[in-house]
Amino acid sequence: MIDLIDVQAEKPTYTIPVSRVGVRGIKYPVRVKRGDREIDLLTEIDIFVNLPSTRKGADFSRKIEAINEIILARKVVPSIEELSSEIAKKTLEKLNYSTNCDVSISADYLVEKRSPNNAPIIKNYKILGETHSNNNGKKTMVGVVVQGINACPCAMETTRALISKDFPGNDELLSKIPTISHNQRNLVTLKIGVPTGKSVEADELIELAEKVLGGSLYSLLKRIDEGNLVYNAHKNPKFVEDIVREIAILALEKYSDFPDDTKLYIESRSEESIHPHDAFAAIDTDFGEIRRSLKA
Questions:
Q1: Which of 40, 162, 202, 238 has the most crowded CB, counting CB atoms within 10 A?
Q2: What's the pLDDT tens digit per position in 151-168?
Q3: What is the pLDDT of residues 221-273, one digit of tens each?
Q4: Is 87 left (phi over 0), alpha (psi -120 to 50) or beta?
Q5: How far apart are CA 74 and CA 82, in angstroms?
Q6: pTM: predicted TM-score of the whole model, two decimal places
Q7: What's the sign of the alpha-carbon dihedral 81, 43, 96, 19?
Q8: Cα separations in angstroms, 230 against 152, 212, 236, 266, 267
Q9: 15-108 matches 136-296 in fold
Q10: Helix, coil or strand: residue 47
Q11: 209, burial (CB in 10 Å: exposed 0-12, middle 13-18, buried 19+)
Q12: What is the tens place of the pLDDT at every residue in 93-142?
């Protein structure tokens, strides 16, 4: 029999605590049952714990064991956010030297929809479930990532002035119609905390994001649909700052009975068509802070 040394349990050379240590990108198939619908997802799981200054390393295998014991024992789960909560709880039970555990789960979410020309298509979203757990309790969030289109309002006003210069006498008309701007593919991430006794559906979050974006992206568009998509985006151009603020308002209205400490994270990233970089804005707050801001 080989006498194995527990290297992880040894004292480190430098007694400095580590805030997060763990593994990323663990892939597991998961079946989710929501109401009378079951969905098979290929999930990607990240899991981290804190490490005290007295310990050299964390037991990575125990994190994998925690995931196995939860997923393989439960053939069907009610949501990926609840799955993240259960994995976090199991991990802390196995690693008694850690006081915090963060679990993030993401998966492609394929939804059958209709294109603007009523053709059947498959749209791909990403759904997210996250849990931060410690000795004082846990915080769980559910989220989505949604792609859409928006048009830049700054470039539009500039081209409006240039058109007015080249074609004088048309200012009244120009003030009433959208003019030339550059399109941007926009990626929205929306995450909301789930209070005790409440639920948040991914489909609801997708609807909120798509309502604010200038238009939804489709793999199949006929010419008239392309025209309408671009035209509608230009009728309501938005900065990334506008997008996150408007989604925050819709989220507050949708979940008006959620308490002030409900966490809210929104980010908007525009893949710029005229710059070699992206535009980015984010709101990382809670419902109470937004409510207080609106009253100020």
A1: 202
A2: 999 998 899 889 888 988
A3: 888 888 888 888 889 999 999 999 999 999 999 999 999 999 999 999 998 88
A4: alpha
A5: 12
A6: 0.90
A7: negative
A8: 12, 15, 10, 24, 22
A9: yes
A10: strand
A11: buried
A12: 999 999 999 999 999 999 888 877 788 888 899 999 999 999 888 999 99
| Domain-wise residue ranges, the chain | 15-108, 136-296
Domain 15-108 belongs to what architecture?
Roll (3.10)
- Angle formed by the axes of helices 202-212 and 240-254, to 10°? 140
* Tokens encoding 247: 């989604």
Do the beta carbons of residue 247 and residue 190 sit within 8 Å? yes
CB-neighbour burial class of residue 133 (10 A; exposed 0-12, middle 13-18, buried 19+):
buried
Distance, CA of 232 to CA of 151 (rounded, Å): 9
114 closest CA partner among 187, 237, 222: 222
Question: Which one-letter amino acid corresponds to residue 277?
Answer: H
Angular region, 88: left φ>0, alpha ψ -120 to 50, beta rest: alpha
Cβ(111)–Cβ(217) below 8 Å: no
Tokens representing 34? 């929501």
Say yes or no: domain 136-296 is CATH 2.40.50.100.
no
Those residues with Cβ within 8 angstroms of residue 236's Cβ, 6 or more apart along the chain or in another chain: 214
Q: Considering only CA atoms, which of 52, 84, 90, 88 is closest in space to residue 69? A: 90
Burial profile 66-75: b = 16 or more Cβ within 10 angstroms, e = fewer: bbebbbeeee
